[in-house]
Design a protein that fits this description.
It is a single chain. By secondary structure, the chain is of the alpha/beta class. The chain is 28% helix and 27% strand. The chain has ten helices and 15 strands. α3 packs across α4, α3 crosses α9 and α6 packs parallel to α7. The protein starts with a strand and ends with a strand. The structure holds NADP nicotinamide-adenine-dinucleotide phosphate. NADP nicotinamide-adenine-dinucleotide phosphate binds next to α3, α4, α10 and β15.
Length: 334
């Protein structure tokens, strides 16, 4: 929307579980004017990450977004007014701009100029989830040639890229995803060797058939019973890279949060599980974006985005990730 109005989603109360009406409010303010050292971004795309529900709900690895504050989120857009030489008008940028039409940004904020013409590719492969896949796979999981790697939420933003990086490293990759359409994309488009549909197949049984000697690496995004099945199938000396556990974050539509039971398999199989946060690698983001961009350009990596529309739909768009309604990176075009 153009004009003089800036629409913003602000926090009214801490959500309990998925976002519900009344947790947030859509308000209107004036489009900000930049002061010296500032610029204004007209946001074109918002990116959605499960961790945003943490940011809204409580203090975690970062303080919760304050009540009355604009909902924070990664986003991409174009500079429309500027009083800094670093980000002239017309520059396409990404950063934590929030759920709003226009963001006022200082030129010392963590903002990067888009490396690709496409905002959706920038927010996906070259954005937070691509970076998570890159550092999780290359620094924590570290697959070797012919290792068997299992990736959960394999049709999602992080999992799909993580599995393709493992393939580039010469590993054999088994995805786990919900439904035949997602599983078909994972094998036929993303080039995984196999994909288990956890909604219609027994994960543990299928892993036993696909990897009779056990799996060497698990790149975990889901947790709960999905992780339990992978733990049952660990090879001796396996590594679990704990990227996330979306099934354990909040109760969804009456289903309780999931827990794991098979942690002792780590002991029996002399294996390790290591968690990580992408923000720990912030000083290496440029290097990773360069590599991810190159893989995207030369076709070594394919990506898929699920682009919803309209700022007014932002809360429901975040909820989609927890219901598995997204296919690929969840984005919203403004
Ligand atoms: N460590 C870090 O720094 C870091 C950074 C970013 C993201 N993460 C984590 O990475 C994971 C993936 O995030 P993303 O943004 O890439 O999301 P995503 O994978 O694009 O979307 C989440 C997917 O998880 C699956 N899912 C949701 N609830 C599930 C359940 N109860 N059981 C099984 N599968 C379920 C759904 O796929 P199906 O349809 O296949 O079920 C859904 O599409 C999350 O755990 C997130 O917290 C970690």
């Amino acid at each position: 929307m153009e004009g003089t109005i800036n629409r913003q989603w602000i926090v009214k109360k801490r959500p309990e579980g998925l976002l519900r009406p009344g947790d947030l409010a859509l308000v209107e303010t004036a489009i900000p004017e930049p002061d010296d050292g500032e610029f204004v971004v007209r946001i074109t795309h918002l990116a959605f990450d499960p961790a945003q529900l943490y940011w809204l709900s409580f203090d975690s690895y970062r303080p919760a977004i304050p009540i009355g504050g604009v909902v924070e989120s990664f986003a991409a857009g174009k500079v429309v007014s500027s009083r800094t030489d670093r980000f002239p008008v017309g520059t396409k940028v990404q950063g934590v701009f929030g759920w709003q039409d226009y963001a006022l940004v200082t030129d010392d904020a963590e903002v990067s100029v888009l490396r690709t013409e496409s905002e959706v590719k920038a927010l996906n492969v070259c954005g937070l989830t691509g970076l998570t896949a890159y550092f999780g796979m290359t620094e924590i999981a570290r697959p070797q040639k012919d290792d068997i790697v299992v990736v959960s939420a394999a049709a999602g933003a992080t999992g799909s890229i993580a599995g393709q990086i493992a393939r580039i490293r010469g590993a054999r990759v088994i995805g786990i995803a919900g439904g035949p359409e997602k599983c078909r994309w994972v094998t036929e488009s993303a080039g995984f060797d196999a994909c288990i549909d956890y909604k219609s197949q027994n994960i543990s049984e299928q892993l036993g058939k696909l990897a009779p000697d056990g799996v060497n690496i698990v790149f975990e995004n889901v947790g709960g019973p999905v992780l339990d099945a992978a733990l049952e199938n660990l090879a001796i000396g396996a590594r679990v890279a704990l990227c996330g556990g979306i099934s354990s974050y909040v109760p969804v539509d009456g289903a309780p949060v999931a827990s794991i039971n098979n942690y002792m398999m780590l002991g029996l199989r002399r294996s390790s599980m290591t968690g990580f946060l992408v923000f720990d690698y912030q000083d290496r983001f440029d290097e990773a974006i360069g590599q991810l961009g190159q893989w995207l350009d030369d076709g070594s990596i394919v990506s898929i985005e699920d682009v919803q529309e309209g700022l007014e739909n932002a809360p429901e768009t975040l909820n989609r990730i927890f219901r598995g309604l997204n296919f690929g990176k969840q984005l919203l075009a403004l």
